[in-house]
Each structure stands twice: as structure tokens, then as C-alpha cells.
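Table S7 (text form). Paired inputs.
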Amino acid sequence: MLTTLPLLVALGAGLVGGVFFAFSTFVMKALSQLPAAQGVAAMQRINAVVLNPLFLGLFVGTAVFAGLCVFAGFVPWGTRRSALLLVAGLCYLLGSFGVTAAFNVPRNERLARLDSASPEAAAYWPVYLREWRRWNHVRTIASVVSAACAGAALTP
């Protein structure tokens, strides 16, 4: 269990972090270069399509395993491995899953309520891009740190 758990968190957080990294490094930049109506419409579709069993299973499943890592980090307390498991779990739960729920999802929901061709959408689009990217950078870093710590916890 203490070998499988960090392996699953390392793989899950690494995959999720890779998705977030892609958005931080080129997807959002490409969308920002489109006319606002097209960028908004494209992001609305992305936000709808991402809600699928495969991605949600990975994203939420990794959160479950990260939560188990937090508890495993206390047994036995005081070892290098326990600290790595605790950090891996907390980084993913707070920095990836928590930031998504608290900051990215509310912006996505606000964007979804707008008509992509409306003046309101055009006015909100630059704000959305700036704020969403800022929080996406945070969750990217948190996911990568979680994956690295979980991976390091695999070694004695």
C-alpha cells in the first residue's frame, strides 16, 4: 500500500499537472489571440468537454489518493517518507484540487453564463484570461510538486 499509493499520486498529479502546464504555456495564449467571441466560445466548449469520466476520474481519484497520502504521512511520523507523503498530499489537495474548486471553476461558471458574442463576454474575457491563468500557474506548480514528492517517497 505504501508503495502503490505514492506511485498513484505521482502518476495522477503528474498527468494533471501536465494538462495544467499545457494550458499555462500555450492553450490560453492561443485562445487569447483569437477575437474575444471566438476565444470565449472555445473556452466554453473546453470547459464543457473536460467534464468527462476519464479526466474527472483522474482529477478526483488523485485527490482521494492524495488525501490518503496525508494520513499515511503520519505513519510513522518523523521520517523523510512521511514528510514527503504529507507534502505530496497537501500540495495536490490544496494547490491543485482546492485552487481549481475555489478559483478556476467559479470563473469558468461565470464565463459559461455569458453569450460569447455579447459585449459582456468581450469585457470579461481579458479579466478571465488574466485571473484564470494566474490560478492555473498555481495549480500547475502544486501538481508538479505533489508528483515530485510522491515520486521521491518511493525511494527508501
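Next pair, protein 2 of 2.
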Amino acid sequence: MPLILSLDTSTAICSVALHSTEGSLSSSLLGSYELFTERTSSAMLTTLISDIVRQAGYELTQLDAIAVAKGPGSYTGLRIGVSTAKGLCFALDKPLLAINTLTAMAEQVRSFYPTDYILCPMIDARRMEVYCALYNTDGQEMQPTTAQIIDEQSFDEWLAQKPVVFFGDGAAKCEALLGGHVNAHFPTIPIHPSARTVGQLAIVAYARSEFEDTAAFEPFYLKDFMAIKPKKAPF
């Protein structure tokens, strides 16, 4: 029964989860923490990790793998999550699993929609841009992860075919422009990245031995980091 610790710091929400398995692929959630803050720090993350493992009655050395949401998302958040996961893998001599953040978001909602729906998780990428991908309700990817600028013609091809569910913190941009379309759906309950569904997908990845090269692994930033220049002082 593999014991897998999962981390998600793709956005301002920092989350950890601990899963075990029953049988081959079914998973049992032993515990999870979600911290809603403006900034994720490595200190916050390591505290949540130690607490969840201890309170579940285990030691870090008993973990079988570490899973992390690889992105896309916040540059700083992903860097913190991946560096923490890699540090644990090296210290404990455990394998690393990496899960696409948007795929894990789609996993949260896919059982709630009919098979003729398309799922579009979105993460805010500033201004009118979002990170997004398209999935069917079986969890299969229909359009790969991209950075997309939203306008009135966005997703026309898909909306002409089937109902599309837009969700995540980037969906508000889309709702303002596409909310009037008969096939555009926007859940009223906020849906955000979570280590809980990262862990569910990590169970499957573990069974398939889909491990990363820990030393070489980098977050899926999708775009190059762009630093904001500080404003000059007026004197």
C-alpha cells in the first residue's frame, strides 16, 4: 500500500495531501491541508508537510513517493513547491511524481457533468491571459495546456459543438465575454488547484512507474518569468 505525499503551490493556495492505496489504483485520502494566503512560503509548506504526516500516524521515512503539481501557475509558487518536493526526494531517497495542475483541476469536477460536456480549467495569468486546457469528462485531454488571451471569439469552435464548463480563478475573465453563450457554463462554487486531486492522479502515475528524473526536473512554467521593474522614486 504505497503512501504518497502530494503538494500543490501553483497559485496563492498552498495545499498538501496524504494518500494511501487500496488495491491497485483506488486511493484513500488520509488527510489534507489547504492554506489560503496571498503568498506561499517554503516555511508554511514544510510546516504543513510535517503536520499532516505526523497527524496521520506516519514518519516522513515511510513515504513511498512525493507528488507535486508541476504547473502551469505562479512562477514563485511553482518554484517553491517543486524545490520542496525535490528536496524531500533527495533527503528521503524517494521517487518524484509530477502532475499537470490543470489536469488535477479537471479531475475535481469531471464526475459532476454529463459525457457530452467539455471541461476547461483556467488559471489567471494576468491581464486578459489565462493558462487553460480542455478535457472530456473521462479525463482525456482534448486540447493541450496553453497560455491564451481571452476575447469574444475564444473557444468558438468548441462552443459550437458542445457545452463547455469554464472554472478556476481565470474563468471570470472568460465569463465577462462569453457568459451570454448558451453553451458556456460557469460553476458558482470556486474551484482551485488542490493537492487532493494531485494525489489521486499520482496514485495512478505511481502504479505506472511514471517517475521523473528528480535532478533534471523543472516546473512547467509555460511562459518565461517576467520581472516587474520597480517604479523610480519621484526624487
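The CA atoms of residues 42 and 80 lie 6 Å apart.
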